[in-house]
Structures are given as C-alpha cells and as structure tokens.
Design goal:
Blueprint: H1 2-17, H2 22-47
Helix pairs in contact: 1-2
Amino acid sequence: MTRTVLIAGFACMMALAGCNTVSGVGQDVQAGGEVVEDTAERIQRSTY
C-alpha cells in the first residue's frame, strides 16, 4: 500500500511540475486527487 501511495504522490508531483497556468494547476490537482481516490477505492475493495 505504501508503494502505491508513493507512486500516486510521484505522479501528482510530475503533473504539477508540468503545468504553466493557474488553471493548469487546478486541473492537475484535480487529476491527482482522482488518482488517489481511485487507488484508495481499489485498495478498499481488495481488502474487504
């Protein structure tokens, strides 16, 4: 699980590094949040 969180965090950092505008930051943060949410849901389903 820790590895998954680290990979998701790294993906978020890469997405934020690539944005050039305030609007781009918002889109990148939203996309990163969706990745984290999807990962958490997948882990929760596999645990129960």
